[in-house]
Design brief:
mainly alpha
Amino acid sequence: MWEIAAQAEPWPAVQGAFLADQLLGRIRAGERPVVSSHWPTAYVALMARCWSMEPASRPAFPHIAEALAGGPA
């Protein structure tokens, strides 16, 4: 969702042979890309729920698709 809104890569400086390991390390440490203040509040809230460190707290894909289609969040 972040890449769609930003139309960019979240950490462009992360490159090389161990790219996946570097990204996974950042994500596991709780690091998230910077969110623009211009993005819709509901979109940012949904994205934050998707980023939850607790998998059970993340929304199911049908809920994400419904929310992105303009249905109830």
